[in-house]
């Protein structure tokens, strides 16, 4: 663990003059106070003060006592988009007690419980996102400074990536400076969509980094006159953005990958422990979906039937089938390699602190109860099976709306337990969000129905 005097010296060497004491609300949106470096000790020992009722989902009213954000020294990150500023992720306290409505505090609770059983949850995330601009009438367009990002299949296109090379280099250089070891960036499947990859870590560190990554994208995009968006599906005719999670569980004492077994009879390189973990994910998948795809817009991405091939590129690349298999991107859970799993259903709009807490809890429930995931779904292109065949095989589907997912969450005490006291707040706010969405009369409805009757 970092020592305050070591960090104080490092900040002096880095020329830090201001500190962002940062936490996230229930949506995963970063919230900050800017603190002069002279008050560094204050935000370690006391914390930066916040009025909880001013932020979504913190379980507070206007009468509540202050939330105090106490910084985590291990999360020290110089802000690469500006000079003289560093960010620390914070844990919220109220009346000198950890605030259970803080998503980061809640994740630490779940991770501590897992460590007490001998487990560490290691995760990586694929942060897909779009660069867009907004017209004077409010409509969005892809950010395309060279007017060349027009291919139906733009994935990996050289001209497409050269179009925004400055932005991608700024991000990669910033991540390298921070020690994240970025190793790839690419133009993704939709026009104006990009992904940058950095090396996995423990779940808390990855959640902190993903949050900071979103902060970086917003600031570097602004430099080029663009808006970076992590909403799941900004364009109806293009592939949506995922936050695909790569993961394994390790032994807390030795670091051994507990998912790995080269002698696996199914040839996937997975252990009995891993299969039980998968069993837990599949069992809780409908409720888990409310947490990993937490907005109404996320379900424009999680489509089945004709929706699977509705993107301009030919595929949405987003399976909504509750299955697992080999290195097959049409499955919910892909075995990316021996001892290495990927969940492709997770939305870019997820709050990583809540998503990781729910995911680990679901998987370990499978381990404790020795849940059987069944045989791996091998050799199938799930997009081509058709709904009738999928139903005939007894394959379940993920919820097709936020409302449906919330109903599943209400019935699942395991996933609710993973969220702690946040669960009721989450359900209340998300039901209100869906209700507000459902009241809207869209342009599509007017165009389709105005003169139909």
Descriptive notes:
It is a single chain. With 453 residues, the chain is α+β, with helices and mostly antiparallel strands. It has 2 domains: 15-99, Glutamine synthetase, N-terminal domain (Ubiquitin-like (UB roll)); 111-449, 2-Layer Sandwich (Creatine Kinase, Chain A, domain 2), CATH 3.30.590. The chain has helices at residues 4-14, 40-45, 103-116, 158-162, 165-178, 203-223, 272-292, 352-368, 382-385, 387-392, 402-410, 413-419, 422-438, 443-449; strands at 18-24, 30-36, 48-50, 67-71, 77-78, 85-94, 97-98, 119-127, 129-134, 140-142, 182-187, 193-198, 201-202, 227-229, 243-251, 324-325, 333-337, 340-343. The strands form 3 sheets. Strands 1, 2, 3, 4, 5, 6 and 7 form a 7-stranded mixed β-sheet that branches. A hairpin with a 5-residue loop joins strand 9 (129-134) and strand 10 (140-142). It starts with a helix and ends with a helix. The model has no long low-confidence stretch (mean pLDDT 96).
Summarize, please.
The protein has 453 residues and is of the alpha+beta class.
